[in-house]
Amino acid sequence: MYAEVEKWLQTSKPNEEICYYKGYLAKDRSRNIDLREMANLMLRSAYNKTIVLYQKRVEYGNALHDPVFKYMARKI
Fold first, then answer.
1. Are residues 17 and 71 in contact, defined by beta-carbon separation less than 8 angstroms?
2. Alpha-carbon gap, residue 75 to 36, rounded angstroms
3. 8 lies in which domain range?
4. Structural domain tally of the chain?
5. Low-confidence residues of the chain, pLDDT below 70?
6. Taking the model in full, what pTM does it have?
């Protein structure tokens, strides 16, 4: 997935969007180094003002499971 996201960052046009992760990124990235690297890439890109990051809730969490979000990026 990292390579796909990196290619999207290089080739996408303004206002194009990508869902780069579905789950609970805040927790999942601590367990998976590849996911952490992809999340860091997206954060750096947002910091450099090439993309805008946002998320959409898919499911609410409860005591038994984490919430689920779609993590989205839009090219500036």
1. no
2. 21
3. 2-75
4. 1
5. none
6. 0.92
